Amino acid sequence: MARMTGAKAIFVAMTALFVSSSAALTAPASPLSMATGPVTSQPIGHYEFCQTHRAECAPNGRDTGAAKVTSFGWQTIRAVNDAVNNAILPMTDKELFGKDEHWAYPDGAGDCEDYVLLKRRKLIENGFSPADLLITVVRKPDGEGHAVLTVRTTEGDFVLDNLERDVRLWTETPYRYLKRQASFNPGRWVSIENGDAVMVSSVGK
Q1: Which residue segment(s) compose the domain that 73 sits in?
Q2: Within-domain flag for 187
Q3: Beta pairing partners, 145
Q4: Which interval of the chain is the signal sequence (predicted)?
Q5: Is 176 within 8 Å of 195 (Cβ atoms)?
Q6: Are 158 and 147 in contact (CB under 8 A)?
Q7: Is residue 142 in some structural domain?
């Protein structure tokens, strides 16, 4: 068998993760997707993170819409979610850094934002577009703030959460969704207009 060049190998790997078409790129957003609004305030922890990781907060360019994730892509998403959840010990920023808010890649321990940063990086390394991996701020039923990773797909928006093993549609979680990174620029944040659209059956879980 002929040996693949590096560029061809990357193309094949990307094809295994996603199935794209011009129709998929122009299709309307799924009814199971979050409706985002105008640009809003960036969390201070993410702002400080961007000062030391500027390349990760640079504009992506034009947003061409979510790709269709293949079965292999879903396996990768679930594997990354499990691996990070199992590898990181939950600890607060106060315990780790002596301050209330500090976003960083975890070194064995971290809080919710740190889990999200690591999952996002690992999925990008596996071929996912940064435009489809969006750090999202939510409010838990008890009123406490929390961060999760939203994965945009043509089937809707799915959530990777350090408090939950399963990867779920955002509407099947008990959270109120407040804001997330902009798909066109990871250094900007947008509001979520339908952030209360959780399923009744999920409340109280």
Answers
A1: 41-192
A2: yes
A3: 139
A4: 1-24
A5: yes
A6: no
A7: yes
